[in-house]
Amino acid sequence: MIQETIKGVFGSITVAKNEATGNPTIYGLFDKNNVFVDRLRFQDGAPPANGFCVEDLIAIAKHRIQHLDTELPSDYNKLAVDALDEALKALEDRMAERKAQVE
Asked: What is the pTM of this model?
């Protein structure tokens, strides 16, 4: 796997890419002391499911922000949720366009 590193909030994120496709598929989270914390795997290729899709992560982030907003309401939370809704809609439209091109 090809790797690169990107900046995370609390440390770094290692990105592992599929050598055949170049698709970034596995993200490893490391703390500021470079200690491994967790891993996230994205869908790689056609179904069946073998990882998360971008839409899944956006839905998860939206759910998390909505929950946090119940504990500490903020207009910024509402703005973030609206932006995530727009992102989900854009990705839904993209998928519909792709399906129409194939049919």
From this structure: 0.87
